[in-house]
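Researcher: Structure for this, please.
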Amino acid sequence: MIDGLIACNQYQKQLLETLPFDLPIYTLYTPIDAEVYHPEEKKRQIIVASKVGFQKNTQAVIELFKQLPNDIHKVYIGNAEMWGKVVYEHDKEFEKGLARVSDTYIKSESPLETAKWIRQSQVGVNMSIYDVGSLFFLELAMAGGDFFAWHYHPMFDEYKHVKRFGTIEDGLPKIIECFEKQEPNTQLADEIAGKHSFASFKTQLGNIIQEVFICG
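Model: Predicted structure, token format:
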């Protein structure tokens, strides 16, 4: 017997609510380790951490990196081992394109090494068009980076301090402007900590357990 469904953000909850199930849906936000993703002084560096592929809008990342000034260090981390072994021909072409436009292109990296790159990056961008959650976004935001969401993806609607852009021409000056400062984006970090700290996770989980097994 299923007592309910759990979503990790409001967008995922909205999607689950469209399913033909008469079940309660709870939100249990993904916890992010504040000790691993703590804010620190930022470098003049932009990072994208995502699988390489059409669904991740890799071509848009390539175009963005092409147009950014040379003095901004461009980092792409693929984390390919997390997504299985299937590699399509167009993905190989994307990888070649990323290698040409990135200052640092890492096909696959461990979580702790990825965390080091994330903590020191001033800006992160999610260009994906199909995601229902973004661990990279949460990690970079917890670390105080400025985060940009591509094409007004509804996944980010509940986070008011996320910066949005609909075209590369629109987003480019906004991204470059962020590099005028080096201090962490404490507004976004505080917003993420409020929902995604381990303390918040324990409270959310306790409320769900109480409602399902005690009150239900």
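Researcher: Any notable elements?
Model: The first helix runs from residue 10 to 16. The chain is about 40% helix and 15% strand.
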